[in-house]
Design goal:
Low-confidence stretches: none
CATH topology of the domain at 30-136 and 493-569: Rossmann fold
Strand content: 15-25%
Helix content: 25-40%
Bound molecules: ligand ANZ, zinc ion
Shape: globular
CATH architecture of the domain at 30-136 and 493-569: 3-Layer(aba) Sandwich
Largest sheet: 7 strands, mixed
Distance between the termini: 65 Å
Mean pLDDT: 90
Number of helices: 27
Radius of gyration: 35 Å
CATH class of the domain at 30-136 and 493-569: Alpha Beta
Structural class: alpha+beta
Number of strands: 31
């Protein structure tokens, strides 16, 4: 009976899993929990493509393996459903974002189900539904209550094409992350989350995470912590003073000028009359440049002298104050002390404007920097013999003692800008009252629902701003007429806590039950794209820590282990996208070959963390492999059914097989932990060959073969779930056992005792005559071989009563025992 693996098997297995509730998650299960999570996706109009399959399907194999290894696996799925694309689509087509989004979700959900993954759909969350965003708003209010949300007028990034502000994290090379339009700086009143309160912990805890090093270092650099010193300079002939931030206070004695950012609030006050025009023009000019531009090292340094001087806090010497665009106003204190012999930017600037170049000595020797060759040595004897760190410490403490400085840690990270002037997002639950000011919407009035009837237009204003039904309200405090906040929340706020809601998605009284969440979290294996390093992954960590500090959570980090899947590109080498027309739909492959062939092909053809350009070159050979495996299974089944077939048990062949089987298990279980699916499949192919070689020996017993077949199917089950489930059922029928799922079986464990098969046959002679043969490990020592030989029963029988004169061991060949 050879049915041939087909779509029918896919359907049967899926139905079986559904009937048996194989994916059903029970929080109270005694087994150790394992939370496997794939970053949820945006329900876009295009169907699931090969890339989604690569991401979701392969992680499902890992989850299935973990389930078989004894874990209570939780693998939920949901949709990140708010966002600009649906709104832009509405402007273009008139189709309401809610309608298009919900329709897309329905399609995607169906496609995900067809994948046959063990997702916990009962725990699904959809971020654009009021029963979810009610709690997103609740989180906003909690942050507000705890001084972690605030409103401020600030220069922000504005994308003229998306017509909305962007968080710093959404600006890439001064362009909008989404549409690549160059951003503009605008002064606007916006809402922020105080992520900077957590900057220190966000850096410190990174080390404890099992995340790709590159991602950790990207996040670390983004947070950009610097340990340094604040130094206070007073201004000559004035009662004013200013601070600089430096990470090299050990070079303080070499300062030859100071630079303020053009936006620094002292600039106009201290500029002398003769320099005022020049300075004003310069300020005007730099306001047009982007930060990125200004910080770029290749950019020629420009600047102007203010005419004023600062007083060095230790030497009391006068040093000129310049302004330059290489100093940015939003970092440190917006002012720097310049030490051209030790800092390249300062050196370039000093050379261009003919400013003095001084150098200092630490460790009794000069820096090896090329600039120091030009510098004039400043003798600061009290610090010369110290190391750079000792000098920093000593100088800062001295400055502290004279009230001129202090230790200071500075971060590059800015607060998270969370308000967006768009419709399709969770409304910010705030009311503006003329009398009471900013009034939070009471918790009992949540959710603040998005109105459905709305006009979409591209005039740059938020549709909510023009919707009086939504905007006009009463003040929760004084009951007078008031206006709702019309900004909505950045969708990254929605996705910063969805992994918590999954555990308790139907809770109507709270975003989640803390007990449940504390039991299931943190996520044990998180899988998603590397592009989230400085956005989602940072925001989610912040929200977790903030909720922890409010007492809702008892863990510090949401995702202990993270893997980035590679990207499956279109055949043209570009990212798959509908507009490029290079998406690969899995459907036709699944119909032609079955979903497991497609899954195994993705595993085998690409490295999970690397991905690559799509090609279906090898899919036929994977199909052939599955057919071969199937023939092997069917041949075994035939042999097993035909019970009176006479087999002659061969211990040696059996041992060889056990070695092959256990080595495969060992390799596969270690590789799948690393999500190295391609090598898992390679090991399994090898096992298939050995199995079939073994079957051809015809030296086999019923029990050995049945056991082997069951193990073979269990090993393959996570990788080819439908196929293995089907044949597992058939093997069970042999002895009229009830059909149970292979996924309720324990994943085979490698038995160490079969793992040392690199053995050689050695003849044991007594006085030159062969008495018996034994197997020993190839790497056994002479002493070991001697001991094994002498404890062999045959040999003992032959030598009892005799005296051993000597034992000659010829490694890997023979042992000769000389007796008399
Ligand atoms: C004197 C000095 C001497 C510096 C030296 C460096 C080397 P990180 O590590 O990125 O924190 N700096 C401070 N504020 C700045 C601003 N707003 N715009 C541009 N540059 C600024 O860099 C800290 C160093 O960057 C500080 O230490 C300061 O220059 C400069 F041999 O002070 B340093
Ligand atoms: Zn009021």
């Amino acid at each position: 009976m050879n049915t041939g693996y087909s779509v029918k098997i896919d359907k049967d297995s899926q139905k079986f899993w559904e009937d048996q509730e194989i994916s059903k998650f029970d929080l109270n299960n005694e087994k150790e929990k394992l939370y496997v999570l794939e970053m949820f996706s945006y329900p876009s109009g295009s169907n699931l493509h090969a890339g989604h399959w690569f991401n979701f399907g392969l992680v499902d194999s890992y989850a299935r393996y973990k389930k078989m290894s004894g874990f209570n696996v939780f693998q939920p799925m949901g949709f990140d459903a708010f966002g600009l694309p649906a709104e832009n689509y509405a402007i273009k087509t008139g189709i309401h974002p809610k309608d298009s989004t919900m329709k897309n979700i329905d399609t995607m959900r169906l496609q995900l189900k067809k994948m046959g993954a063990l997702f916990n759909f009962e725990n699904e969350v959809v971020t654009c539904t009021p029963d979810y965003y009610k709690w997103t708003q609740w989180i906003f209010l909690k942050l507000y209550e705890n001084n972690l949300a605030y409103r401020e007028n600030a220069p922000v990034n504005f994308c003229p094409s998306c017509n909305t502000v962007l968080a710093n994290e959404q600006v890439i090379d001064n362009c909008c992350e989404r549409c690549s339009t160059e951003i503009e700086k605008k002064n606007l009143t916006q809402w922020f989350f105080k992520i900077t309160n957590y900057a220190d912990e966000l850096v410190n805890k990174l080390d404890s995470l099992d995340w790709p090093d590159k991602t950790k270092s990207m996040q670390k650099n983004w947070i950009g912590r610097s340990f340094g010193t604040i130094v206070n300079f007073s201004i000559d002939n004035s009662n004013k003073n200013f601070n600089v931030f430096t990470t090299r206070v050990d070079t303080l004695m070499g300062v030859s000028y100071v630079v303020l950012a053009p936006e620094h609030n002292l600039v106009l006050e201290i500029t002398t009359k003769d320099n005022l025009n020049k300075v004003k023009n310069y300020i005007e000019e730099s306001s047009k440049q982007s930060e990125i531009d200004r910080l770029s090292s290749s950019r020629e340094k420009t600047g102007v002298f203010t005419g004023s001087y600062a007083i060095h806090p230790i030497t009391n010497k006068k040093i000129p104050i310049w302004i330059s665009n290489y100093v940015i106003s939003t970092y440190g204190t917006g002012a720097v002390m310049a030490v051209p012999a030790h800092d390249e930017r300062d050196f370039e600037f000093a050379t261009k404007f003919n400013l003095p170049i001084n150098k200092v000595i630490t460790n009794n020797k000069e820096d090896e920097l090329p600039m120091t060759k030009k510098g004039v040595l400043i003798n600061s004897l009290q610090f010369n013999s110290l190391s750079s760190d000792e000098a920093k410490d000593k100088i800062t403490k001295y400055l502290e003692s004279i009230g001129k400085g202090s230790f200071k840690t500075t971060f590059r990270l800015r607060d998270w800008l969370i308000s967006r002037q768009r419709y399709w997002g969770a409304p910010i639950p705030i009311v503006h009252c003329d009398d009471c000011g900013i009034v939070p919407v009471p918790y009992t009035s949540l959710p603040v629902e998005l109105p459905y009837n709305i006009k979409f237009n591209a005039n740059g204003k938020s549709p909510l701003e023009e919707c009086s039904e939504f905007k006009e309200t009463t003040c929760p405090k004084c009951n007078k007429k008031a206006k709702r906040e019309t900004d909505t929340l950045d969708t990254f706020v929605c996705s910063s806590w969805y992994y918590l809601r999954y555990v308790d998605p139907k809770n109507n009284d709270a975003p989640f039950d803390s007990n449940k969440v504390n039991k299931m979290l943190p996520v044990d294996k998180y899988v998603g794209g590397p592009e989230h390093a400085c956005m989602h992954l940072l925001y989610a960590r912040f929200i977790t820590k903030a909720l922890r500090d409010m007492g809702y959570l008892n863990f510090d980090e949401p995702f202990t282990s993270l893997t980035h899947q590679g990207l499956i590109l279109g055949p043209d080498g570009f990212k798959m996208s509908k507009s490029r027309g290079n998406t690969i739909s899995p459907d036709k492959y699944i119909e032609e070959y079955g979903s497991d062939v497609f899954r195994v092909y993705l595993m085998f053809a690409f490295t999970y963390t690397e991905g690559g350009a799509w090609s279906d070159d090898g899919i036929k050979s994977i199909c052939k492999f599955i057919n071969r495996s199937e023939r092997l299974i069917n041949k075994s089944l035939d042999i097993l059914r035909n019970k009176n077939f006479i087999f002659d048990y061969d211990k040696e062949a059996h041992e060889e097989l056990l070695f092959a089987l256990n080595t495969s298990i060992k390799m596969i279980t270690s590789d799948i932990e690393q999500l190295q699916f391609n090598t898992c499949i390679a090991h399994f192919m090898k096992l298939t060959n050995q199995f079939s070689k073994y079957l051809n020996t015809n030296k086999i017993t019923y029990d050995v073969l049945k056991d082997l077949l069951l193990n073979y199917l269990k090993i393959f089950a996570p990788f080819a779930p439908h196929f293995s489930e089907y044949y597992f059922g058939i093997v069970k029928e042999l002895d009229n056992e009830a059909k149970t799922s292979v996924f309720l079986e324990e994943y085979p464990k490698a038995d160490e005792k079969y793992l040392t098969r690199d053995q050689v046959e050695i003849a044991i002679q007594i006085n030159g005559k062969i008495k018996t043969k034994i197997y020993v490990d190839t790497n056994s020592s002479e002493e070991e071989i001697k001991n094994i030989s002498l404890s062999n029963n045959d040999i003992i029988n032959n030598i009892t009563g005799k005296t051993i004169v000597k034992v000659i061991v010829i490694q890997n060949r023979l042992v000769n025992i000389v007796v008399k």
